[in-house]
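Incident log, structure service

09:12 report received: a user says their structure output differs between two submissions of the same chain.
09:20 pulled the input from the user's history:
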Amino acid sequence: MSQEPNTAAQAGSESASGTLRQIDQGVCCDGPFPAARRADDAVIDAELSAFEAFANEKRLAVVHALREGELCACELETVLDGPQSAVASHLRKLRDAGVVATRKEGTWTYYRIADTASLQLLDLAAALGEDR
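09:34 re-ran on a clean worker, output below:
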């Protein structure tokens, strides 16, 4: 019996780097590893930022309130029924993710949806959730 470890058994217990080593050696499957399929880190970071912004019921409530048009920060406090500091924190997260945009008018700050792609993403998420 051979003293060499079973390559298939090793593959199941190795880390991702071990799997990549096997792919480089041609052990994994027929054909070369499609390195072009690796997502760019900047793209992943941008997507993660958007999903993190949407991963909160209060922030989702803000986005839904803004579907019909812009609202003042004080109006959004009423929508969320929360303190100014909490609403400001949610709005900052949405703004940093590029979901909402602002404009100042005197001492008031107005918020609006920055890009309709955000609404399309939420519509898609709702459609996926309906199938459950």
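09:41 both user submissions now match this output. Likely a transient worker issue. Closing.
09:42 reviewer note: Residues 8-12 have pLDDT under 50 and may be disordered. The radius of gyration is 23 Å.
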